[in-house]
Amino acid sequence: MANEVAVTQRAVASVEMGNRGLRFTSLEEMYRFARYVVSAGLGGREATAEEVLVRVQVGMELGFSPMRALSAVHVVEGRATLDYKAVLAKIREVGICDQGPLVGNDGTDDDRVGYIEFKRRDLAEPIRVQFSVAQAKVAKLWGKMTQSGKPTPWVLYPDDMLIARAVGRANNRYFSDVTMGLRVTEEARDIEPAEPRDVTPGTPPPEPDPLLLGAGGSQQEVGHAAEQQTQQVQEAALPHEPDDIDSKWFGREEQ
After folding, report:
1. Disulfide check for 144: which of 24, 118, 154, 177 has CB 3.0–4.6 Å away?
2. What DSSP element (H or E) covers 118?
């Protein structure tokens, strides 16, 4: 017991502050921060400390501060995803484009689109990628409601969602090197979850992680985390959206 207290005290003392906030030097420090985030309600509804820790880690790999990562990175069906606004911010930050990216809406009725325009330095021509109301209707997204009858963002903010899907398409095709291949959050949430797989009965729960115990988590909390891992029954992989819907170059069809 005395050794556990000493480890915890050393970890607390080692947390450093920088010009962008906390600077983590160990898993224990990150996990403690994640627990504080969950306690403060900043991780999102039903978020666990383990999920928050993963989101922070993914964000740090992309160069985000811990708090920026919380708003930019989300877990959808077991996969880390990136908010479309964060995708745009990252593309602009790395300076890979001579022009753009610029986003917006134009057109009316079924021809109304959300678009993203950009010119990568390593491509010969500027590119325009778009997503239309007609395509949203084919995908059964336009006017979509939740199972409980509440409006989704496709009802509340349709123009924003058209832009988000255009950014998601451009991200998949042209910027996976910038975003580590992460799918855009808004796109991932539109895809139906995978069917649950069978889990062999009697599988023993994983052993509690001693690092998490050292980070100040109680045996009960760590045991609960292990139980959650055992109960996960959905496939992590997300089905890919087919790329057979056309988008356009400036002045010519994209092949």
Report:
1. 154
2. strand 113-120
Q: Using one digit for the tens of pLDDT, what is the confidence trace for 46-99?
A: 899 999 999 999 999 999 999 999 999 999 998 999 999 999 999 999 999 999
**DSSP assigned state of 111:** G
User: Structure tokens of 17?
Assistant: 């502050």
Six-digit token pair at 146?
């939740």
As a whole number of Å, the end-to-end CA separation of the chain is 65
Instruction: Give SS3 for 123.
Output: coil
CA dist 55 and 57 (Å) reads 5
Contacts of 246 (CB under 8 A, 6+ apart): 253, 254
DSSP lists the bridge partners of residue 183 as 81
Residue 19 has pLDDT above 80, yes or no: no
Express each pLDDT in 230-254 by its tens digit: 454 344 444 444 443 333 333 333 4
Task: Give the whole-angstrom CA distance, residue 91 versus residue 110.
Answer: 29
